[in-house]
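Handout, tutorial session.
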Amino acid sequence: MSLRTSEPAGNPYGDLELTDPKAMRALSHPVRLAILARLQRHGAATATELSAHVGASPSVTSWHLRHLAGFGLVRDSDLGGDARKRYWEASARGFRFRFPDDEQGRAASQVLSRTMFAQYENVPRRWMAEAEPRLAPEWRREAGLSHTGVRLTATELAAVNTAIERVLAPYVTRDAADQPPDARHVRIMRYVMPEADEQ
């Protein structure tokens, strides 16, 4: 199996965990990442519906969907009653992966990381240009970024990451029916980048 869902203590969001280097490499494609992100945020869709948002034709989008399905990242959805249309859905609301110790796993995770960094590098700039000017003051006050440097051991960093996920987990995992009517989608991008050994 190329992925798994961890116990809540290590994965409080219930994300799919990519453990197979082949699955990591399968997701290391901008169109596939865009497909998965779109399904996770907006729910089930057909290849034709997705194609308008992921920069690929319906036939190419369909091919990428089948490739993602082969690794369990997407699956057929029972949405819609039209048998002529094939709806797809994300298998989980999120995914995660770690840098394995073996050479093949480390290489695959580096490729996926690079693709994800490239995919999202313009998100803050687009947000500043398109969303931020239209925010109400109460939303604008809570938006933004911080840049904090801190000296930690690897064990302490793991504890910090766990604590942040525990704070977010109840909000990430709650059902749509339990969300307040004024809730809106908020993107929280967290970069954890330990520096190399000091020389």
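The second record follows below. Compare its token runs with those of the first.
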Amino acid sequence: MKNQTIYLLRHGETEFNTQGRYQGELDSPLTEMGIQQVQQNALMLKSLIGDPNEWKVFSSPLGRAMQSTEIICETIGYDLKNVVKEDRLTEVAVGQWAGLTTKEIENSWPNLLHNTDVYNWYFNAPNGEAYDLVVNRLSAWLETIQHIPQVIVISHGLTGRILRGIYADLMKEDTLKLEVSQDAFFKLTNKTITKICSDFDDF
């Protein structure tokens, strides 16, 4: 819809993040740094949204996203019970690579890393989720919310990257190169994407 605004946030740093392990649909709790990142983002979000009850909040149901959502809701003054847990916002599934480091993956599946690149290789995971399937589920979700004028989304690194790519009509190779950050978030409106971080001084 015209004039729709979406704020897209990623969960904070997790234990697996610090170990360089791919999480996919697995989970690990936020670190102290991760909690601080979410709190910082939530304070910036609060300064931008006005009345929180005029917004609809959606979250991935995975634990690290819900832990982040709880912090965000507490900070902005939104009732956690009103958050919609949306399965289509979960992280891209990496199949048998979930919980492993890049080194462990290289040791066990060296052939699957050939003829690919640093942005695309995780879609080669055995029993993992194909890029097009992720695009389909996120596109379908975006369609279901197009009538909601003000939306806050808490999701994941790769999923958030692909969601932004769909929103801005980017090609796959450009989508997968989009920035992923845990101490910033994004405003999506009128097909444009604005990064919001701690040095963002327009509020």
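Points raised in discussion: The first strand starts at residue 5 and ends at 10.
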